[in-house]
Amino acid sequence: MFRIYALVASLLTSSACFSAAPLVIDYPQLNLSLQYPQAVRLEKALDDAQTQLSKNAYSLQDYAIANRLFNHQKQSQAEQLQRRTVSKLRVLSRGQTDLSPLLDLADQVASWNVGYRERLSLDIDEVRITPASNPMLRGHFSLIAPPRSKTITIAGLIHSPSQTQVKAGNTAADYLNNALLLPGANKSFAWLIYPDGETRQIGYAYWNDERTPVPPGSTLYIGFDAPSAKLQQLEQDIVLLIGWKKDIK
Question: Is 0.85 topped by the overall pTM?
């Protein structure tokens, strides 16, 4: 049904070979690609993925909420959004008396390795029982199935974005209590970006603390204080890009 290609040997394989195949799925964790002679359902692709991953002590079921499928044919859209976002942040910084917060944020966004992430459930059990969650796949994709993370990422308008260890019972406010905010940072609301890329804005200050639990592998992003409509759109673009990061860990 498929042929296996080692990515390390890609220089020996013509690019036309991959482009002609109706479906190619790369596995960065395994340095491996599966090439299919025809489009297949997501369920079939996930079954094959599980077979390959299990040979290397990985599993789609380890932490299904963090599984990610990136579309190579839409990669340029992700890169354009990243470049546009960085450019806007740097332009905005020119009108500020304190340039460092926006420039620091621009540098953060520019450093991310992003790709166009398809909004599909990659929980194999859900895919099997829900026809709407089992589309046909055609094109070139990368599938990442990371193990359950032990950290939470804190990013945005803060000094030294970092990862902190997951602590049982901790809420968003607990993780953000010790964050050193940059000038112009929102002291009451943060964005929670879940491992599956879904997002929500949450209250974390004393007066509006929602006691929000944070799943392992999530990102807490501190945005702008009282943003204008322009800054709100920019903030939403940044949050989207966080969900599109290609980190394997």
Answer: yes
